[in-house]
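Protocol step 4 of 5: obtain the predicted structure for the target chain.
Materials: sequence only (see below). No template structures provided, no constraints applied. The aim of this step is simply to have a reference model before the mutagenesis design in step 5. Sequence pasted as it appears in the construct record:
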Amino acid sequence: MSLRNTTQVSRSDRYRGKIKVTPQDIKDHLAIKWDPNQVPSEMVSKTGDKFTVSNFRWGFKEEGVAPSWKPQFATTEIDTSKVKDVYLTLQPFAPEVVAAHGLLVFEMDGDQAIKGENGERDFGLALSVEARSPEGEGYNLLKGLKKTFGQVYQLGSLSDQMQKVGRKRGHKLVLHRLNVTDEQKKMLLQNSLDAATEDRLGEWYHLLTNSCITADIDLINSVVPDSQQMARWSKIFKFSRPATMLPVVAGATLKKKGLLADEPVRVINPDPTIFPEIQHEKTGMHKTLGTMSRSWAWKPGFVLSGTGVGGALGYAIGSQFGPIGQMVGTAAGALTGAWAGDRTSDIIAVKTDIEVQSQSDWYAELGGLTSEQAQAKITNPAANGL
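Step 4 output (structure tokens):
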């Protein structure tokens, strides 16, 4: 039995309607042989707070070279009443200054919250909204601007995500814990599972308007009040807003809306035995700026500085057009500078107020495991028990 969700909570926001899928889009999708590592889930059943879904990924069999590892899927029951915390998570990739993959990570209360049909268990799961690739087609930012990739809301265990990112790809994870209520966490998980089991045949990924981070933002918006909504589109001309389109500024956007927990952002390094050269470190600069960012004077200082610099620049430009130009230029420059200072203060704070951990230490901390037990689970997520 398959229960298909029709509310489409992830496909609409406060400015635009649902994504349109044409018969030709569906025909084109049916003609594509998709990457076997990405398989959409279906809703098998809902019983109270317990959701059962198919094609939940439990990691990869580590046989041969990493690109050839085979994914392992199983029908899985998720007890949504046991959600403990939610993280908007980034997986940076080159060029990291602008590029990152966004996903939602759910920390659960105990390893009985997520149970696979073959005895698999975990205390966390991830919803990774991905560009669904034709087999043999690698992801490319430019190709993401046209109809190249489908859209898949990939569900998998937390250990699956640790293995894929930290052992298979050699990327770090950057975790922003959400400042939301317990009821909002539960609703966000349920909405995410509903979104993951929607029929997305014919839906195309788009880098600017239908991507990993835009889907994450839509899902978070589905559980927060209007005052904390993160607008996806500009009010004029309905352009995609950088604040909710670029993953690299997602943390600052959360902070601006009061949705980021008041704690350092966690940076989780890849497996050091496989990728010793890709280990992020907390530097003296991180410590200094991170500490300063917690001061009451941090944001006002940036706003005042931005106002001064912007006003001076506006005055200089406006002077070319006489006294009226000076006044208009100064005012416009000051307002623009104040806005830029405010945004810059949040971006720097989120990037520098961090704590760095190894993936095995962080996973062990969440599950009450030893580092050795955590490493064994990350290496083989489908193993029965923990």
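Step 4 remarks: Residues 298-342 form one domain. The chain has eleven helices and twelve strands.
Proceed to step 5.
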